TrEMBL record:
Superkingdom field: Eukaryota
Protein name: G-protein coupled receptors family 1 profile domain-containing protein
UniProt key word Protein biosynthesis: no
Subcellular location: Membrane
Residue spans crossing the bilayer: 57-78, 90-111
Protein's membrane topology: Multi-pass membrane protein
Signal peptide region: none
Taxonomic classification: Eukaryota, Metazoa, Chordata, Craniata, Vertebrata
Keyword Transport: no
Source species of the chain: Cirrhinus molitorella
Swiss-Prot/TrEMBL keywords: G-protein coupled receptor, Glycoprotein, Membrane, Receptor, Transducer, Transmembrane, Transmembrane helix
Length: 114
């Protein structure tokens, strides 16, 4: 009896792995229909996610922000570490803040837009 339960669980796990693999490795926008049925996503949500705002405008906005923020944060980091000799708590805080800001573009770059 335990073998039957174990094999059934393994089969469901494999189906889940196959589903997740297909979901995250697909670049086809029609693959959303498969996930729409699986997750019960409304038609309005699918239309929004396939729309111009999400697929073109927001990625352009992210690229614009990244192109401006990287050089300015690098300049701030150089200024706070090399130019300011007196290391007060506010300067140390601003150095850490500039470091985190330089590392933050890693997350939006992981987003895949088709």
């Amino acid at each position: 009896m335990s073998d039957e339960l174990g094999s059934g669980s393994a089969g469901r796990d494999q189906d889940h792995v196959d589903f997740v693999h297909k979901l995250f490795n697909s670049t086809d926008l029609n693959a959303v229909n498969y996930t729409q049925d699986a997750f019960n996503i409304s038609d309005e949500s699918v239309d929004f996610l396939k729309g111009l705002l999400v697929t073109r405008i927001m990625p352009s906005f992210y690229i614009f922000i990244i192109l401006i923020s990287l050089p300015l944060n690098a300049l701030a980091l150089v200024t706070f570490t090399c130019k300011i000799r007196e290391k007060k708590p506010a300067v140390i805080y601003m150095v850490y803040l500039a470091c985190v800001d330089l590392l933050s573009p890693v997350l939006p770059l992981k987003i895949h837009y088709s």
